[in-house]
Amino acid sequence: MKCPFCGFEESKVIDSRPTDEGERIRRRRECLSCGRRFTTYEIIESLPIIVIKKDKSREVFDRDKLFNGMMRACEKRPVSVDVIEKAIDEGFDIRGYYLWSLFDNFEWSAGYHYKFGIATTDFATGETKWKRSAYFYRDFIQKARETAK
What we know:
The chain is an alpha+beta fold. It has helices spanning 63-73, 81-90, 95-109, 132-148; strands at residues 11-19, 24-31, 37-43, 50-52, 58-60, 119-122, 127-130. The protein folds into 3 domains: 11-43; 50-90, no CATH class; 95-148, no CATH class. 36% of the residues lie in helices and 26% in strands. The strands form 3 sheets. The chain has a 3-stranded antiparallel β-sheet, with no helix packed on it. Strands 4-5 form a two-stranded antiparallel sheet. Helix 1 (63-73) packs across helix 2 and helix 3 (95-109) runs antiparallel to helix 4 (132-148).
């Protein structure tokens, strides 16, 4: 921190305490060159959350826009407004979905067929069978949750 008296660029902090309900930090400093003391106030700068869209354009995050989009996506599903509110308020981890998309892309590269995805369906019996990639995906998510705790 630059000294306001002599312009020297280094000082030591003597005292530090929060002010204004934790919004700012007041620091008493002493210049290492001239020895004079001065006070600084530090404010935490909040940066807006920027959303990068599919077309690479950027816009400021809008909670209402997210809520309306989730409501439209769930309108024919038994999902309550409370669940959507909770998902937006608490956040949700989407890392696993990228992994799933990666598996799907590997299967597309091998050529499309009816048993595409992480599960197959026996059309005669209607039974669903999970592929090895589904179990890998399950284990991957389980390990990620355990390490996040």
